[in-house]
Amino acid sequence: MNDELRQLYQAIIVDHSKAPRHRGPLPGATHEATVDNPLCGDEVTLRLVVDGADGGRIRAAAFEGRGCAVSQAAASVLVTRLAGVDLDEARALVDRFASFVGEPPEAAVPAELGDLGAFAGVRAFRSRQVCATLVAQAFLRATRDRG
């Protein structure tokens, strides 16, 4: 990864950690899960409003949590991508993101990840991979056996 791209990715993470999007309660949530990392204290609660009448489309998404910049920024970026997406598409995105974070540091950043590609740098640090994927774990837990 070149320095210019690394700086852009760093800026995305800093921006989302300082000014998270879709952070707060979500009244009427139909799906919810909380995941924590007991090793560092990070915690993410993900809430979704899924419209079953529309084939399982995510109408709204929000998160709450505490922890490091990586966990909170990842939650902000992913939740931003979820609104308006059907559950199957969202599951595919979450699976792709979780796989991406576990890939070797030199692996290419898939274009379909968009701003989630900003977390390429965590691939070099196992402990940071867990932080970045807390929100993915919460999504999978919240939607398991539902929708």
In short:
The protein contains four helices and three strands; from the N terminus they run αβββααα. The protein has 147 residues and is an alpha+beta fold. β1 and β2 form a beta hairpin.
CATH second-level architecture: Alpha-Beta Complex
How would a crystallographer describe the biggest sheet? 3 strands, antiparallel
Oligomer: single chain
CATH class: Alpha Beta
Mean of residue pLDDT?
90
User: How does the helix and strand content classify structurally?
Assistant: alpha+beta
Query: In total, how many beta strands?
Result: 3
Q: Tally the helices.
A: 4
User: Number of domains in the coordinates?
Assistant: 1
Helix content: 40-55%
Note poorly predicted spans. Answer: none
Shape: globular
Rounded radius of gyration (Å): 14 Å
Strand order of the largest sheet: 1-2-3
What share of residues are in beta strands? 15-25%
What does it look like?
- It is built from 4 helices and 3 strands.
- Helices cover 43% and strands 17% of the residues.
- A 3-stranded antiparallel sheet has the order 1-2-3, with helices on one face.
- It has a single domain (3-143), classed as Sufe protein. Chain: A (Alpha-Beta Complex), CATH 3.90.1010.
- The mean pLDDT is 90.
Keyword list:
147 residues, Sufe protein. Chain: A, three-stranded antiparallel beta sheet, 3 strands, 17% strand, globular
List the helices and strands and how they pair.
Layout lengths: L2 H16 L12 E6 L6 E9 L5 E10 L2 H14 L4 H15 L24 H18 L4
Antiparallel strand pairs: 1-2, 2-3
Helix pairs in contact: 1-2, 2-4, 3-4
